[in-house]
Specification:
Layout: H1 15-32, H2 45-68, H3 70-79, H4 84-110, H5 122-148, H6 151-158, H7 161-173, H8 179-195, H9 209-231, H10 238-256, H11 259-269, H12 272-305, H13 307-314, H14 317-327, H15 335-352
Length: 368
């Protein structure tokens, strides 16, 4: 325990200010180095690294919570009379505008700094855009699922990305599926059955097979997004990486729901202002909590925390969605559903424990 304490006497006249400078120094050293052992030795090193790690962990948790509230916002938008095209388009376009405005501010501000951040090359840019198209596919399929089944059940279907990502790793990276992973898959499937509401409602819940299909499809695209986001463009600043990703989202939504016909109809009927005012609050909420905040937080924090620990932390999305559906939408959440959610969370934690024992920061990868 003594090694985790800061030697205040050796930090200078103002301990708090000196600790803050130490943290900033270690962060800058971390960004410039892929080997943590190159940090200059000092008695406060472990303490400061843990503070930095906790901050990254909180950022991943916040990103997961942001994703968790989206299904509730979408349900409220549907109740207001908006369609799937309205919801997905508003999220993509409002999110893109907000993020690219932040990028312009960032680009202007960084020109005055001595250290220039790297820009995306063509190969990395295309990979990030395709990653964004996978994210756009999540929105399309997940929000279609939410349209047909309760939000508290839709989120459970989305969480199937946990085992789908294992299959993708096997197919793409030839990573073997161990006995431990098979047990994990079994626990997740049992938790899914319990959390779906099939048990305990005495046929009060009627699930659409089409809705279930869209939910599983959303889980597949989510797995693709998680795998790609963990390996592509990690050498870029978070806002640059997220800006290219959200461009891919907007392109995907535009391809499925071309905006030009809708705009011509609104202009012809002189309903542009009324439509804009109707969609504005939902577009801002979905754009910020779905397209701006989580991608920025994940792009910044996941390369530092690591994919395994991030999978555990990101699973906070599941209870967040269920809690919002219960408190805001008034959806019933049975004891069986809570048990299913608990099983899925437990399985996610167990499967990632061996990979998250490293207490230091994960070296930043420069995968293009």
């Amino acid at each position: 325990m003594d090694s985790l304490q800061v030697d205040v006497k050796n930090l200078g006249v103002c301990p708090l200010l000196s600790v803050s400078r130490h943290i900033r120094f270690f962060e800058l050293t971390y960004r410039a180095s892929t080997d943590l052992t190159k940090f200059p030795p000092c008695k406060s090193r472990i303490f400061i690294l843990q503070i930095i790690m906790i901050r990254y962990i909180l950022l991943v948790l916040l990103g997961g919570c942001s994703f968790g509230i989206l299904s509730t916002i979408v349900k409220l938008a549907y109740a207001h009379g908006l369609s799937l095209a309205d919801v997905t388009s508003a999220q993509a376009y409002f999110g893109a505008v907000i993020l690219w405005m932040l990028l312009i501010i960032f680009q202007r501000g960084r020109s005055t700094k001595k250290r220039i951040q790297p820009a995306a090359n063509l190969s990395t840019t295309l990979k990030l855009i395709f990653t964004g198209m996978a994210s756009g596919s999540i929105s399309l399929s997940y929000y279609k699922c939410v349209e047909q089944i309760p939000a508290s059940i839709a989120i459970i279907l989305l969480m199937q990305y946990t085992w789908i990502s294992i299959l993708l790793e096997r197919l793409i990276f030839k990573i073997p599926i161990t006995g431990r992973k098979w047990i994990f898959l079994l626990i997740v499937l049992i938790g899914t059955v319990l959390g779906s509401g099939i048990i305990g409602y005495n046929n009060e819940v009627h699930l659409s097979l089409v809705g279930i299909g869209y939910g599983l499809l959303a889980g597949f695209f989510y797995a693709v997004f998680v795998v790609a986001n963990g390996y592509v463009g990690n050498q870029l600043p978070a806002i640059v990486k997220s800006s290219w990703v959200i461009l891919g989202v907007a392109l995907m939504i535009m391809a499925v729901f071309p905006p030009f016909g809708q705009m011509q109809k609104l202009v012809r009927t002189q309903e542009v202002t009324a439509y804009f005012l109707d969609i504005l609050p939902y577009g801002l909420l979905l754009g910020f909590f779905g397209m701006v905040l989580p991608p920025l937080l994940f792009a910044y924090a996941i390369p530092k925390v690591g994919v395994s620990l991030s999978s555990i932390l990101g699973s906070v999305e599941l209870p967040t969605a269920a809690l919002c559906a219960y408190l805001i939408l008034g959806e019933k959440v049975s004891v069986w559903q809570l048990l299913g959610i608990l099983l899925i969370l437990t399985a996610i934690i167990i499967i990632n424990i061996p990979s998250s024992q490293n207490t230091g920061l994960r070296p930043k990868t420069n995968t293009g």
